[in-house]
Amino acid sequence: MEPEQERTAPSRVGLWTIARSWGRIGALGFGGPPAHIAMLRQLCVTRRGWIAAEEFEHGIAATNLLPGPASTQLAIWSAWRLRGTAGALVGGLCFIVPGLVLIIALAALFLTGNPPDWLLGAAAGAGAAVAAVAVKAAVDLIPASWQRAGVRRAARCRWLGYFTAGATAAALTGPWLVVVLIATGLIEVAVRTAGMLRTDRTGRTGRTGRTSAWPLLAVLPPATGGLAALIWVALKVGALSYGGGFVIIPLMQTDAVDRYHWMTDAQFLNAVALGQVTPGPVVQTIAVVGYAAAGLTGALLAALAAFAPSFAMVIAGAPRFDKLRTHHGIQAFLSGAGPTVIGAIAGSALPLALALQRPWQYALLAAAAGALFAARRGVVTTLLGAGTLGAAAAALGLPLT
């Protein structure tokens, strides 16, 4: 491996170079955000020396403060750093499109026509493992979030309260999860602001910062149906997925299955599994929901609505990322919302598990949990293994629906 470069980026990197490099990452980026971040860093810092190592780390920190798919936003930011707005658009699109094309093709295969039983079995098997994957995603996020809470007992008690609120909301309340997320963020802002007022001996409150009103779009009345409803659901997914792609599951499930009846529970599980085993960001799961709602047009509109906030926030905010990372209000809001998101990811496992229809799927769920936690297998490997066992179950004549 070449030594890391610390020089600054060249003034202009060709758009074709960005398209080719980011497209390659989008096509090969199996494994979710950790793989995407590692590949972007290897390209931009280690191999090409386009971005200094410290600056890249700052980019990771800043994009993780934004709502939406963090690894996608890091890809957009990295390309913006090399070629401005044009680079951000080209790099972001080339990162997203390969996985999007694949997931739409798979959605067409699963949701239309008459796929063979072995393929339906593979989908049912992979879908059975999704609840275990959700728990694993939450468990992996807990240590860093717990450490950020600090050592004070009050802060850790609030962390546990936020986590519990998120888990309960995701498991029991469906669409009210977003209200809980916003509430916990605002509670933490209030607590920290009060603490600053108590410790400021000069009597000056200073600027404590204001949290963004952007999340409040989640509590506005939803659209009644049709393409407007689909765009609304996708916009919520893209704008409110704090903490990584898996938090979109409780945000989507109630809308896609219960409110608008675009999909069955089994189809939704298949959609989540497809989002995990295809390259690119997990948020592309929304394209499967869009396909179920309105075919190819729905898939493309849903993807556009889900990713548009990421492009807008990065392009508009990239010059101010240093201030964003130190903004008191944003830091406080995310300190409350972060544990809530992790709890929501864990809590989403309950409705996902209850959506399973056959006893053999529960056996696969248990096997997937063993693979993830005991054998320490990767998510993609576990889902592919569960899909293989599901295909075998179909071949043995076990019921699929």
Description:
It is a single chain. The protein is mainly α and 401 residues long. The chain folds into two domains: 15-98, no CATH class; 99-395, no CATH class. 74% of the residues lie in helices and 0% in strands. It is built from 17 helices and no strands. The chain has helices at residues 15-28, 33-47, 53-64, 70-111, 117-128, 130-148, 153-173, 177-199, 226-240, 248-259, 265-277, 285-317, 321-325, 328-347, 349-354, 359-374, 379-395. Helix 5 crosses helix 16. The longest helix is centred in the N-terminal third of the chain and has 42 residues, at 70-111. The protein is globular, with a radius of gyration of 21 Å. The relative contact order is 0.17.
Task: Name some characteristics of this structure.
0% strand; 401 residues; 2 domains; disordered N terminus
Give a short overview.
With 401 residues, the chain is mostly helical.
- Number of helices, where a helix is a run of at least 4 consecutive DSSP H or I residues: 17
Radius of gyration: 21 Å
Integer tally of domains: 2
**Poorly predicted ranges:** 1-10, 201-221
Range of strand content:
under 5%
Order of helices and strands: HHHHHHHHHHHHHHHHH
Residue share in helices?
A: over 70%
Q: What is the arithmetic mean of pLDDT?
A: 82
Could you give the count of β-strands?
A: 0
Q: Name the structural class.
A: mainly alpha
Q: Please describe the biggest sheet, giving its number of strands, its sense, and whether it closes into a barrel.
A: none
